[in-house]
Every structure is written in structure tokens, then in C-alpha cells.
Amino acid sequence: VQLQASGGGLVQAGGSLRLSCEASGDRFSIQRMGWYRHAPGEERELVAQLNTRSGTTNYADSVKGRFTIYRDANVLYLQMNSLKPEDTAVYYCNAEGSNSSWYPDDPRYKYDVWGRGTQVTVSS
Fold it and tell me: What's the per-residue H, E or C state across the chain?
């Protein structure tokens, strides 16, 4: 599986952006997809995650009610509304899965892949 992220840019506070992450390869092997961000001087942070098997989602407290993660076929999206300057960061798409349909939870077959980051800058 390979990931290609896009959609970052510069926006004023209060504005919106939508990030996209296209997965190529065996997308049916993907078990979980998510968006992380890394701001200068900060640790990488999980922003939102989607379990592709159950459909459940979880969000960082800082983005709840403003960001929405969803998937359409082989594309993962992150809709970001009411953006704040503190949302400024490089955003990365991530996918976790298994190369085995027989033993999907066996750690020997697990994989974890990342897309290239996309810069999101929110001006005040």
C-alpha cells in the first residue's frame, strides 16, 4: 500500500480545508487509517483515526467538533472546519493493515505506512 496526500494550504482562522489521502495497492488489507500532524517544536500528534473494519472514528480532543475523518473507496479525507492558528502543522496520512487475510491480527503480517506530509498553515 502506498499513500499520496494532498489538500494542504494557507487559510485564515475560521476557514476550512479538506485533506485527501489516496491509497494505492491492496487497499482491502488496510485496517485503520488516520491523520497525524507535526508542528515545529511539538511531538507528532494523532489528529483523527478511522477503523476501516468497524467504521469507528476517534479524534484528538483539540479537534473534536471541528474536524471530520471519512473514507470514500480508496481515498481518506479530513474535513477541517473552524481552523485555528494552532492547527498549523505538517499533516501526514497513515495506514495500518495486514498482509494476511488468514491471520489479520498476527503482528508478523502487520504493516504501517505513511504518506508524504502536506503543510497546513492557518493565519490569525
Answer: CEEEEECCEEEECCCCEEEEEEEECCHHHEEEEEEEEECCCCCCEEEEEEECCCCCEEECCCCCCCEEEEEECCEEEEEECCCCHHHCEEEEEEEEEECCCCCCCCHHHEEEEECCCEEEEEEC
Length of the chain as a residue count: 124
pLDDT digits (tens, 9 = 90+) for 5-24: 999 999 999 999 999 999 99
Pairing, β 118-123 against β 9-12: parallel
**Res 99: pLDDT:** 87
The whole-number average pLDDT for the span 85-112 is 93
Provide the b/e sequence for 57-66 (b: ≥16 CB within 10 Å). Answer: eebeeebeee
